[in-house]
Amino acid sequence: MTQPKQIKVNAIKNGTVIDHIESGKAIKVLDILKLDGSQTVMIGINLHSKKLGSKDLIKIENKELTSDEVNSIALISPDASVTIIKDYNVAKKIQLQIPEYIEELIQCPNPKCITNIEKISSKFKLTADADVSVRCVYCEKKYRIDDVKVHT
Amino acid sequence: MNNLISMRDLTKEEIMLFMETAAKIEKGELNPNMERKLAALMFYEPSTRTHFSFATAMKKLGGQTITMRGTQNSSVQKGESFADTLQTLAQYADIIVLRTGIEGSARYAAEVVDIPVVNAGDGANQHPTQALLDLYSIIKTQGTLENLNIGVAGDLRFGRTVHSLVYSLSEFNPKFKFISPSFLQMPSYIKDDLVSQNIEFEELQEIDQKIEELDVLYVTRVQRERFADPEEYEKAKSSYILRRSMLAGVKDNFRVMHPLPRVDEISTDVDDTPYAYYFQQAKNGVYTRQAIYAVLLGGLK
Ligand SMILES: [Zn+2]
């Protein structure tokens, strides 16, 4: 018996769909996207997902986000999928990549780092190493991406 | 080059430019004129030797220095005033030399002011002028930086100086021997970097082990505070003391270096052997810092 497909979040005609967000992280994701507030945004939290059990979902109407705009989502929910919708159809899928340069989003874990002493925003660069790591531009300490806190 | 903040920023060519400039200044082939230049030495952390060396270097070039001292809990830690202090000094001076305990301060300073900034040590992070003077000492005694056998002994875990040295030599295909108590070994992130660069190294427990293979032995202090148990310290200490009797089989070009001050990790009976190089090393620090002023303040012509 097939279950009728339930649409809890309305389909959008044009815009961006961010799906498979780790459950509970949609608000954080929305926060780092820094939208200007003019778009219609639909958010689903703890939706049923075959793949993940549960997931969050964000739909942004009439706004095509670019890779640069969405890549920082990889810091919060690396397995999220980003799709651009045009006329109700998938026009493009964006593969999330950790940004090469990350400003403000990460707090440097080093208590002796100047970014934790002066009021200046943190800056990190992605390293070329195989383990996904970032290096603080100031104190030069390297951290695995899983070990740093993303603040929003 | 506008600033000297970290060895990470320097290419091999830039390192060699500092080496060649220091050599020319030492031989009298280059006499940069800094008569109208003023260096602001901002020392938030006491370091008499480093301060002397920077002040001497500027004076030998005919320039002037002013010194601003602060304690660790003064302006650097009170928010905006660090930026303000920098801005103010930048109105008077041509170059800022900054020593602090707070990591990343020099990078930040370089963003704030538009005159050159030299990092004279920022906590456990970087001390590039020390690294350059160490490299200059190595090139002077060995004739090259390439393909050398370098022993590094002492506190390899917390030693900023040895980290910078190992990091900067990595560009020159070295072979390393790391000599330390097991709990003060080179941190794994540095060893991982060496492995990924295919640089050979081995870890040893006794200072004279394989000493006959070395071109340079760089000795640093093992601090008593690092040991939980004072008895452990006394026991371990003797494994890291270099004595004259250990030098019987060393190569002719072998040299012992030390960033100074030493406590007792190099026995004084080594001082009058041809292998002792630590006092000349301090002198090389002045040539190196003269070269740094010259490169950053346009004194190469
Ligand atoms: Zn940092």
Biggest interface, chains and residues, is: A-B, 17 and 22 residues
How much of the sequence lies in strands of chain A comes to 35-45%
Portion in strands of chain B: 15-25%
Q: Spatial order of the strands in the main sheet of chain B?
A: 7-6-5-8-9
Instruction: Detail the poorly predicted runs of chain B.
Output: 72-76
Uncertain spans of chain A: none
Write the H/E string of chain B, N to C. HEHEHEHEHEHEHEEHEH
How many helices of chain A does DSSP assign?
2
The total of beta strands of chain B comes to 9
- Helix content range of chain B: 25-40%
* Secondary-structure-derived class of chain B: alpha/beta
Terminal residue distance of chain A: 44 Å
Spell out the helices and strands of chain A N to C: EHEEHEEEEEEEE
- Gross geometry of chain B: globular
Mean pLDDT of chain B, as a whole number?
A: 92
Plain-language structure description:
The complex is a heterodimer of chains A (152) and B (301). Helix content of chain A is 8%, strand content 37%. Chain A is built from two helices and eleven strands. Chain A has helices at 26-33, 67-70; strands at residues 15-22, 41-49, 53-61, 81-86, 89-94, 101-103, 106-107, 123-126, 133-136, 142-144, 149-150. In chain A, the strands form three sheets. In chain A, strands 2-3-1-4-5 form a five-stranded antiparallel β-sheet, covered by helices on one side. By secondary structure, chain B is of the alpha/beta class. Chain B folds into two domains: 7-126 and 285-296, Aspartate/ornithine carbamoyltransferase (Rossmann fold, 3-Layer(aba) Sandwich), CATH 3.40.50.1370; 128-282, Rossmann fold (3-Layer(aba) Sandwich). In chain B, helix 1 crosses helix 9 (278-296). The longest helix of chain B has 19 residues, at 278-296. Chains A and B meet through loops of A and helix 4 of B. Bound molecules: zinc ion.
